[in-house]
Design a protein that fits this description.
By secondary structure, this protein is mainly beta. It contains 1 helix and 4 strands. Strands 1-2 form a two-stranded antiparallel sheet. It binds zinc ion (ZN). The site of zinc ion has 8 residues, from helix 1.
């Protein structure tokens, strides 16, 4: 079973100081890497660079990553990180 992120983050830092990329679409985690730089991207993963500190609408910051599976898809019926949004949002007027 593939590990997934449970909150909107673009990568997580492991206890040993390495990083695991988080797919922006499905939340899948990459294997641990020395850094989240382009040079360390695992095979098949893609990266969309953003300025340091840039905040995305979901609250995450920085570069976006996609796993090999999602990067190959061209039929996105879901918006990125749909899986992490609350399903029963109550709008307070
Ligand atoms: Zn994915």
């Amino acid at each position: 079973m593939a590990a997934t992120a449970t909150e909107a983050v673009n990568f997580i830092t492991t206890s040993t100081g390495r990083v695991r990329l988080v797919c922006q679409v499905c939340g899948k985690l990459s294997r641990s890497l020395a850094s989240a730089c382009l040079a360390d991207l695992p095979d098949g993963w893609s990266m969309a660079p953003y300025a340091d500190g840039y905040a995305h609408p979901d609250g995450s910051t920085g570069d976006l990553f996609r796993c090999p599976t999602c990067d190959k898809r061209r039929d996105f019926p879901i918006s990125p990180r749909e899986y992490m949004k609350p399903v029963d949002v109550v709008t307070v007027i």
